[in-house]
């Protein structure tokens, strides 16, 4: 970590808050920020006391996408260098899915391009009324390629096509209507509402949530029977966990 980290890490009870910390650049993504984000996600995942991870942005915006210096780097880099750079961001998206606990994007202000991709890659998206979402890449001749894989799993094909090819922004309520956002909270109550939302994960089984998250993404694209067979395997594993054993014992004791 540098003396001025581009990503901040704090713990509030059983929730970790990971804050993109380049407010003067609208939290634009650069190599350092992407590296620190991956490191801190792994740190949170290794802590068994953590029940949720909240990703948010310092200042007025969530994340405006790639930094200008990163765009210059793209235009000057070789094919292999661009491949390594793209894979680094891809690792953030896959890591969010691999983390055992829910990863929640808390979006205020703008979430654009890779920033919108980062938000939608999270398991849940909470938005302030001010939030704006968009994929402006096509305006500069770029293809929103990796974020497309995430977006298409969140919303319908035609809505995804519209967002990706028109380059325009949508507000928080429209994003919720499309299925890109789970909840929209009032601006002056946003932080309190986000904290209350993630606190609910402290009331449910960590192992059950972890297995549910893994199974949900694992069955994506599976045939019906294959998905059921995979569910059978996870069902058996869940029955053997300590949380399930204790939960059943408590339930039976009340009868």
Structural notes for this entry:
34% of the residues are buried. This protein is α/β, with parallel strands linked by helices and 255 residues long. The strands form two sheets. The protein has a six-stranded mixed beta sheet, sandwiched between helices. The protein has a three-stranded mixed beta sheet with strand order 5-7-8. It folds into two domains: 7-203, 2-enoyl-CoA Hydratase, Chain A, domain 1 (Alpha-Beta Complex); 206-254. It is built from eleven helices and nine strands. Strand 1 (7-12) and strand 2 form a beta hairpin. The longest helix is centred in the middle third of the chain and has 20 residues, at 79-98.
Uncertain segments are none
Q: Identify the CATH class of the largest domain.
A: Alpha Beta
Q: Can you tell me the CATH architecture of the largest domain? A: Alpha-Beta Complex
Number of strands: 9
When the domains are counted, the total is 2
Largest sheet: 6 strands, mixed
Give helix and strand order, one letter per element, not per position: EEHEHHEEHEEHHEHEHHHH
How big is the Rg?
Answer: 19 Å
Which structural category do the helix and sheet elements fall into? alpha/beta
Distance between the termini: 54 Å
Count of helical stretches: 11
Spatial order of the strands forming the largest sheet: 1-2-3-4-6-9
Q: State the CATH superfamily name of the largest domain.
A: 2-enoyl-CoA Hydratase, Chain A, domain 1
Q: What is the 3D form? A: globular
Look at the structure and give the mean pLDDT.
93
Approximate strand percentage: 15-25%
Helix content: 40-55%
CATH fold naming of the largest domain: 2-enoyl-CoA Hydratase, Chain A, domain 1
């Amino acid at each position: 970590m540098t003396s001025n980290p581009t990503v901040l890490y704090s713990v509030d009870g059983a929730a970790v808050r990971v804050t993109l910390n380049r407010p003067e650049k609208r939290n634009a993504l650069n190599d350092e920020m992407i590296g620190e984000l991956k490191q801190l996600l792994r740190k949170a995942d290794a802590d068994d006391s953590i029940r949720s991870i909240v990703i948010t942005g310092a200042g007025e915006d969530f994340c405006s996408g790639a930094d200008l210096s990163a765009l210059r780097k793209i235009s000057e880099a070789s094919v292999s260098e661009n491949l390594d750079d793209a894979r680094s961001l891809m690792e953030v998206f896959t890591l969010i899915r691999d983390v055992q606990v829910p990863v929640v994007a808390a979006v205020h202000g703008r979430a654009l391009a890779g920033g919108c991709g980062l938000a939608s890659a999270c398991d849940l998206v909470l938005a302030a009324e001010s939030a704006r979402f968009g994929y402006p890449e096509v305006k500069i001749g770029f293809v929103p390629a990796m974020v497309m894989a995430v977006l298409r799993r969140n919303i319908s094909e035609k809505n995804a096509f519209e967002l990706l090819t028109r380059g325009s922004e949508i507000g928080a309520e429209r994003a919720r209507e499309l299925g890109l956002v789970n909840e929209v909270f009032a601006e002056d109550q946003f932080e309190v509402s986000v904290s209350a939302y993630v606190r609910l994960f402290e009331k449910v089984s960590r192992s059950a949530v972890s297995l549910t998250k893994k199974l949900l993404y694992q069955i994506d694209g599976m045939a019906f029977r294959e998905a059921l067979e995979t569910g059978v395997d996870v069902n058996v594993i869940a029955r053997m966990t300590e949380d399930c054993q204790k939960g059943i014992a408590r339930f039976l004791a009340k009868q």
